[in-house]
Amino acid sequence: LFRIEWSKLVKYRPFIWLTLSYLVMTPGLMLFLDGFNLDFFGITLERIYVFPQGWNSVTWMASWFHILLGIIIVIFISNEYSNRMVRQHIIDGLTRKEFYVSKVLMIAVMSITATLYTAILAIIGSVVYSGGVDNFMDGIEYLPIFLFQTFGYLSIAMVFAFLLRKSGYAILIYLGVIFGEFILRSILGANVSPWLQVFSPIAMISNLTRLPFFQEI
Known about the structure:
- Helices cover 75% and strands 2% of the residues.
- By secondary structure, the protein is an all-alpha fold.
- The longest helix has 35 residues.
- It starts with a helix and ends in an 11-residue tail after the last helix.
- The mean pLDDT is 79.
């Protein structure tokens, strides 16, 4: 099932360009911050990239670009409905269950790949700033958390694509929910009770990777 999805994705131009953008943006943000040599409340960037803080820092930075992976999913699935690929798959013998499972497999593999890529960036950051990977295992729990977070973002994108089936509408709603929820939470702030926050799916997922050094600050 995944081989079927991959054969379509690898020839899909938006997938290639958006994936390349995703691969560039996280290390680009790391280099951008490094260029300013900023100091946050006495916490230098060198400490941010060195383990054990490196896992938290790099996964937090990478989490900002989940939206690109989500857009890939929205466009890809929506276009399958627009181009009548879903009907063709059914005619060719694929069951509806297999069709849905193939999409879940696709976002699972994308989530695992994004997590491995983020882990490599974290290791490179630690090697560059400390010359090694001391305390490698400390804080490594952020990797499975990041994996779950990525899968969550892509699952929400998949749901919008299945429901709306038009890439333009699905992308607008997907982005609208993400930014609208963020703005609403920023306005309401502490006035939002904990029991109400659990109904904010984006908030629950985005809060999995916290701002580095938040407790120290």
